[in-house]
Amino acid sequence: MRKLAMLAAGVVAALGLSFVGVTPGEEPTAQAQAAAITINQFQYNPAELAAKAGQAITVTNNDDFPHTVTAKDKAFDVTVPAKGTATVTVPKAGNFPYTCSMHPGQHNPASINAS
Ligand SMILES: [Cu+2]
Fold first, then answer.
1. 56 CA → ligand 1 middle, Å
2. What pLDDT, in 10s, does the model give residues 63-72?
3. Distance 97 CA to ligand 1 centre (A)
4. CB–CB of 86/70 below 8 Å?
5. Looking at the domain covering 29-114, what would its CATH class be?
6. What is the DSSP string of 87-104?
7. Measured in angstroms, how far is the CA atom of residue 6 from the centroid of ligand 1?
8. How far is the CA of 114 from the centre of ligand 1 (A)?
9. Which band of pLDDT confidence, cut at 50, 70 and 90, is reported for residue 28?
10. How far is CA 94 from CA 37, 38, 49, 89, 114, in A?
């Protein structure tokens, strides 16, 4: 009987710990929302992306050939392999129009607005 009581206490303690682990205030909701760009048939989507300066932006290329995400002012210049992904980081706040250096003029106008 004493063993059973100790076992029950252990279960309660374990449950108590797990409840502490899921306290809403401890969830990482304060972090910046994930930012992402998808390239489909030469189209950057979304055409205008809001992000934070320094935030990692995942770019997914669904096309069969590589593209780039190249800021007009060269603040960033990333090649995204065919059927692959790359990460763009905007170094500072501001509005950064960008295009693809491999197919200039063939992509939709796009920009990242970093705050
Ligand atoms: Cu391109």
1. 21
2. 999 999 999 9
3. 15
4. no
5. mainly beta
6. EEE--SSEEEEEE-SSST
7. 66
8. 22
9. very low
10. 18, 21, 12, 13, 5
